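Why does this matter for the project? Reviewers at the last site visit asked to see concrete outputs rather than summary tables. In response, this paragraph embeds two records directly. Each consists of the residue sequence and, immediately after it, the corresponding structure tokens. Nothing has been edited or filtered.
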Amino acid sequence: MLEKYAENLWTCDTEQRLGLGLRLPARMTVLRLPDGTLALVSPIPISDSLSAELSALGPVSALIAPNAFHHLHLPAAARRYPEARVLGAPGVARKQPSLRCEPLEPQTLETIAALRDVLAARLIEGAPKMSEVALFHAPSRTLLLTDLVFNIVSPPNFVTGLLLACTGIKGKLAQSRALNWLIRDRAAAERSTAALFMWPFERLVMAHGQVLGEDANALLRAALQPTLKSAARELCAPP
């Protein structure tokens, strides 16, 4: 079921079952664009009932995979919406060779009239296996992240809670310790992460965990501070 958070912005939550009892909440974000069409960010399995809800909002014109891990449901979504353009973070096209996948980058967004003035993109550099692209939905002042941070306040079971505790993300907005294994260029990762605060976001929607509205900017800054060195801290320091 869709949940509305702002004008022309909805989310839909599901649960990923990863084996060994692990259950991870996951989220798709739905943006209605100025031309009345929809962009689906991090598509989840789309049932007939969910498809009907989406159809009531408008036709789907874009499917967006914002990092190299969130692509598994792209083929099914592309089959359901064959006219939609598929945009993927670096690495997605290689993992989904059957799809005509365009790069999710500022230059591509500039060529799509419905996206040009409402969506901005910035690659989180230095972690090529994840290759996360942060998105800023300007009309709702919403920052869309995928796996850069988690905010799973209430784990669905003991096994999941244990994993989240081991990775440092149980019950709070935080970065997973697993990210340290993915980063190959820490300076680049710090600079591009700190640059997110150049966007005037007031809401934070991530793929895993509770959406943040009030104080989202300050809470994200606090969650990222332990991983940023002094130069990057200056970039994201509050005014």
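We now turn to the second protein, recorded in exactly the same manner.
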Amino acid sequence: MTDNLKQGTSEVMPKVMERYSLGLQWLIWLGIFMGCFFVAQLVSSVIILAYYKSVDIKTIAQNPANLNVLRYAQMGASILGFLLPAIIFSKLKDKKANRYTHADKGFPLLLLVLIPLLILTIYPIIDISFFINKWMPWSNWYASFQEEYKTIVNGLMNNPKYSILLLNIVTIAIVPAICEEWIFRGTLQRLLVEKLNVHTAVFLASCFFSFIHFEFSGFLPRIVLGMFLGYLYYYSGSLWASIYAHVVNNGAQVVLIYLNNNGIYKVNIDQPEMPNTWELVLYTVAFALLWLLFLRFLQKRKMSTFTP
């Protein structure tokens, strides 16, 4: 009888959140997220202060050979600030956190090739959004914070060692991808999709995803990227699809900056070039064809119920 009672309780618990409206559930999500985010920033600052005897990032970044603690602090902040609230909220929605976020779904090997091609072909559109963003009034918001962010990135990247390159990929690509996708796509977007039109849900989650970075010189490009990741997650039905895409995107930037800093391949990530008309048309058509292939493949695998 006790076992039956436990089983009955476990079946009821996942439904607790469902008694609340979407607005109230979103407030619960926001409260959990902001609480964890604040704690994460506090813990990260304490670690940095304890080791470097300062929280002045510009001063700390002047010594690229001694930034591993900063890297570990950033990874810890990502885990505490993004992954932890995602898991807490997922547990409130379903007794199995990975089931609610679809982190228990499979990942077909074809997507290992298809997703990088999709990212490559969507970049002209992202580049255009970068130039549009320059005209927007928010482009210079938090300018000092943006400079500090660039100082951190430059400091982390200014090291020719391959071991540091690999550590940077973990710090800037792998850990943030898992943590950010779990919170923004796996919980926020998934929550919004329960009550809202999918396109509205993807857009709102992408806006919040971009805003929380507090780096407004790339606000619109990050929204475009976030929407791509959101649709990738929605149509694939697997959180790992958007996580992989996020890793590929961030990891490629890390590698390109490394190559640029070491004079191997010159490229300016912060100032992309305006794509030519033929490039925009060619890449957009290629993206559309690849996206259609992506949807058809998922349909055959019965991973998506969407009919193009």
